[in-house]
Amino acid sequence: MIYDHLREQARYRGLHPGLDRAFDYVRSFDPATADGKYELDGSRLVAMPQSYVTKPASEKKYEAHERFIDLQFIVAGEEAIYHAPLERLTLTDAYRPEKDCAFYSGEDAQALVMRPGDFSILFPHDGHKPGCTWRSEGAIRKIVVKIAV
Prior knowledge:
Helix content is 6%, strand content 49%. It is mostly beta strands and 149 residues long. The protein has one domain: YhcH/YjgK/YiaL (Jelly Rolls, Sandwich). Strand 7 (90-96) and strand 8 (101-105) form a beta hairpin.
């Protein structure tokens, strides 16, 4: 897991072939872009702008992906993404290849407080619970870029 602000993105360029392109997309993002899925490099690199209202962590599940790395970037709003290594979590919903997702339960011990300009990079071994309310429920505008491993 990597947690930082976009002004520091140069430190992480070159770590993975799709990461540079993901940062380029986030840096040039037009907030008027509709929510949805946008292929940047076929199915190997997909940007997904999203708008939603945060929910209490107790209403959310941890998730993890086997085939993709998540770059999660906050455009507007504030949320918590809880993080835990998979070995500290309990599998609740088996991995579904068509969704590239499995769900887990576990303690909410480590919160990444995400504010505008912040990003997190979550690898296949990183359980994460995004979209959680931090101080108060709020509207979020976010981009998740899926980067094939």
